[in-house]
Structures are given as C-alpha cells and as structure tokens.
Amino acid sequence: MYHKSKGYKVFNVINSICLILLSLLCILPMIHILAVSFSGRGPANANIIGLWPIDFTFESYEKTLNSPNFIRSLWVAVYRTVLGTAIGMALIIAAGYALSKEYSYFKGRSVYIWVFVFTMMFNGGLVPTYLLISNLHLINTIWALVLPGAVGVFNMILIMNFFKAIPRELEEAAYLDGAGLFKTLWKVYLPVSMPAIATIGLFTLVWHWNSWFDGLIYMTDSKKYPLATYLQTIVVQQDFSKISLDPKDLENLSQRSVKAAQIFITAFPILIVYPFLQKYFVGGIVMGAVKE
Amino acid sequence: MSVVLLEKKDEGIPVQIPVQQSRLDRFKKGFKRTWPLHVLILPAFILTILFHYVPMLGLVIAFQDYKPWLGFFKSEWVGLTHFRNLFMFEDSVNVIWNTLIISVLKISFGVSVPVVFALLLNEVRNIGLKRSIQTLVYLPHFLSWVILGGILIDVLSINGGLVNRVITSLFGIDPIFFLGTGNWFRTTLVVSDIWKEFGFSAIVYLAAIAGINPSLYEAAEVDGATRWKQILHITIPGMLPIIVVVGTLQLGNILNAGFDQVFNLYNPLVYREGDIIDTFVYRNALLEGNFSFATAIGLFKSVISFGMVVYSYRLAYKYANYRVW
C-alpha cells in the first residue's frame, strides 16, 4: 500500500535517478580512458577528450601491440595466470575435499584447518618472505609468482563448505559401488560442484592477472615482468630505470593515448570474464558468509 | 550416522570387541582408512609450511642487525633496539598515525556507505534497473589498483584531468592538486577506496535483506506502518547481525590502510600525510636495505593485527554467533 502513496512515488523516482547517476559514476573513468585511447595524439595530449574519442584512430593500439616489451610482459602474465590457476585449483580442491570429511571420520581435520587458517591471521611479512624466495633461488623464475600464493585458504574453505553441503547419500552410493576416496572425489564430487569450482577458478584467474607486487620484488629482470607489473612501473610510475627502451618506445610512452591503450588492454581480460563472474559470485559470497 | 557406512565391515568375525584399544592402535586403524585424505592435503600442507611458516622463523632478524652477507646465524643480536627506534624516529611514528587515520576513515565509511546503498537499492522495484545498477557498481572491485591507479592519475591530474576540468568549469575554482597535497591525498584515498568497493561490499547486506521474512512487512503494513517505519523496524534490525559481523571483522584491518592503493597513487610530495606502514616497510627494506628495521615494523604490525583479528572473531562470535567454518 505504501508504494501507492504519492510521497513514496516521488521518493522512488528521485532514488532511482540518484542510483543511476551513482552507478554511471562507477564506470565513467573507464569510459574516459577508453575514449582517450582511441583519440588522436594531438587531442589526447591537449586534454580535451571527454567521454568520446576525438580524431578516432587505432594508432595507440597498433603502437602498443608492436612494442616488444609490452608483448613479452603480456605472455609472462598469460603464462603465470594459466600455470598459477591450474596448480592453485588442484591444490585447494584436493585439500578442500579432504577437509570436508567429518571429524569423526577424519581425525586430523581440525589440526590441518588450524595450520591453514593461521596463515590468514599471521604472516612473516615482506622481508622474511623475500629472503626465503631469494634463498630458494626462485628470484627471476615463474615459480616465485606461482608457488607462494598457490594455497588460497579462503577459497579452500569455500570449496570445503561446498563439498560439505553435498548429500552424503551420493558418497555412500559411490562407496557401495566400490569407489575409493580418490575415485569419489574425481567421479562424484568434481562433476557435482563444477559451477562452484568454475567460479573460484575465475576468481583465482583474476587474482593472478591482477597481481603485480610479487613481480616487482621477485623479478629483478624487467624482461620477466608480468603485464600488471609492467603497467605499474612503466606506465603508472614512469620508472624507466629498470628497463631498456629504445627511443621510439620512450616517445610512445609519453603519449597519453598510448598509456590509456595499455591500461585498457590490461583491464580487458577482466572485463571479458566479468559477466561470468557476476553470474556466480553473489551465490559464492553468500555461501562463504552465511554458510550452511 | 552416515559415516559409519564408509567403514569396511569386519566380515565373519564373531562379535568380540576388545575391551580397550591403545591410542596407537586406534591411530593406526584410523590412518589405514584415511591415508588418502592425508595424501590429498599433503601438497597444500607442504607449500603452506614452506612459504608461510618458514618465513615466521625469519622474523628473528627483527631482533638482529641483519646483514645479508653474514646470514641469520652470524648477524649481531640487538634485542629490542629496532622496536625502540620504531617509536623514536619521527618518520615511523608519523607513518603509524597516518595508517591509523586512513584506515579508521576507510573502515567507518566502508561499512556505512554500503549499508545505505543496499537500503536504497532495495527500494528500487524495477528488477531490470536494479540488475543494471548492480552490474555497474560491482565492476571496479575486480580491477586492480594498478589499473585504477593509472586511470585515477590521469583523471585527477592537475593539468587538465577530467575531474579538474569539470570542477573548474562548474564551480569556477582553481584546479585541485588531488594527489599532490597531503589532506587532499587522504581524502582521495578514502573516496576512491569507497568508490571501488561500496558496491561489492553491499552484496552481503542485500543478501541479508533478501533473507528477511516477507510476512513481517505484511504484518507491519496491516498495522499501518509507513515504509520508513518498516525500514527502521524490520529491514535494519534484520541486517544488524551481518553489519556487526562485517564491522568487527574490519577491526583486523586497523593497520591495513591499503598498500596497493597507496603505493600506486602516492609520490614524495605526500609522504608526510600519505605514507603508511606497508609502504614504509617496502621502501626501508627493498630500496634502502634496512632489512632488520623493516622486519621489526612488519612484526609490530602483524602482532597487533593478529590480536585484533582474534579479538574481532571472538566479538563476532559472541554478538552475532558468526563462525568461520
């Protein structure tokens, strides 16, 4: 009945307009940067671009994709993302499955959980971790980017809670058919929880793609920078001390439209997977927050 | 008990339960059954020990004058010197204050803004509009601070950045040096952090609202409660437990002012108001090579954060019955 009152109708219109403006505010900066990236060199450097390109051109994208430094970092990023996601998911699915067993069946469970969860609350910090990586001779290898963060404890708990919610009857049926614990995971749990695993996989993918700090400290050779680190040092901080650029690259990087193009290309994969993420993450987050 | 079914039944053996099994025997029997589970955990366990617990041993250098060429065993022990220095050096004290100020601002707005947003969004009746708004406001959460830093530096630039162009033409004031003056820098940090996260943080509140029993609203309606009264007496109390949980769990972040964000936006001009513990540790350790001092600050931060996390989980459990697993 309240929605029939005149006051509420007025409120509703104003409220809707405010929220629409607010949501546009969330993507305007992205649209602006996209407009700059498609603009000609002159208008971009003169700061007259708003939300629409002026002198539309693909020039900045051509320059970016012809830059060997950029392409090399792009491949490093793809490599670390694929490798890191594959290893990370295998680890947390295996461990999450084992931890989803009830305490009465699997006595070691709570000890393991504490070992994992404690790392979420306390860590050695930047310097000791750096010294470890360097003592293990992982500096400048892809493993420095893949292994330290491979066990995502939060995601592991999400998977564990998801497995816990799978009806016991399925497991019992598999057991009666002679399947062991490994086979039950492979043939029963995995197929049933594919949507949840795909969601967590996408989150891991995004995490790896976005990671930049490990690249910055563990890669002393800028040729091995993943794309996010490259963007951070070269494009955002404009720190050229670590990288050898030929003069043409240097000139390109001072161009506002080229910078915008590089930012947009780095964000592009995220924008691609975003619709798939959105389809699932609401369920996933609620699953993690409220549970059972 | 369904689990019992999983155990292999002893076939043909007469019922003859041993009076008392020794602990070791029981352990052996359990292990025979569950060894595959240990195997499945093993890789994750080893990596966790190696990359998370071994560095904790490395924390000893906070009590040493660590020199890389001398190693952990030959470096000189200096006791609590670095911790004393931490509170004596003007720079580090300043950094601790900055961290506290920035994180308290972020936490208070970071909890309240999403709550208000969730309440307002809940009033939108048009499902299509609601979905579209959600799609747009969740997006910035997924972009890293490197990307957003690059965008913000461009948009907030004092030389014709989009924001400055808008405010100079709308209000006719001088352009604002958002990333170059201390107080504006802090404001920028807080506002841009809220801008990035408010939509995504609202998800749990929207879920809480969706979980409220509709019959409560119907009953209130019958009793003649206005919409405002309904929000005040049904919606907000329904969200309160999750607000308490989120708010208390944020206590663990009291010394996390957001390394990624600050690192990608700051510059020497705003070190005085914008430098935080994590960026200070980074510069001290990896740029200046003060490994021990940096570790000491990091340890100070870790210990306080750990205490706050434990305390906040206890609070959340006590007041909202929240458990992690």
UniProtKB/TrEMBL annotation, chain A:
The principal location of this protein is: membrane
TM stretches of this protein: 70-99, 111-133, 139-163, 184-209, 260-277
Annotated Gene Ontology cellular component terms: plasma membrane
Compartmental location: Cell membrane
Provide this UniProt record's keywords sorted from A to Z: Cell membrane, Membrane, Transmembrane, Transmembrane helix, Transport
An example GO biological process term is:
transmembrane transport
Q: Which domain of life is it from?
A: Bacteria
Q: How does it sit in the membrane?
A: Multi-pass membrane protein
Q: Which Gene3D superfamilies match?
A: MetI-like (1.10.3720.10)
Q: Which InterPro entries match?
A: MetI-like (IPR000515), MetI-like_sf (IPR035906)
Which residue ranges does the record assign to the ABC transmembrane type-1 domain? 70-274
Family assignment from sequence similarity: Belongs to the binding-protein-dependent transport system permease family.
Q: What is this protein called?
A: ABC transporter permease
Organism, by scientific name, is Paenibacillus antarcticus
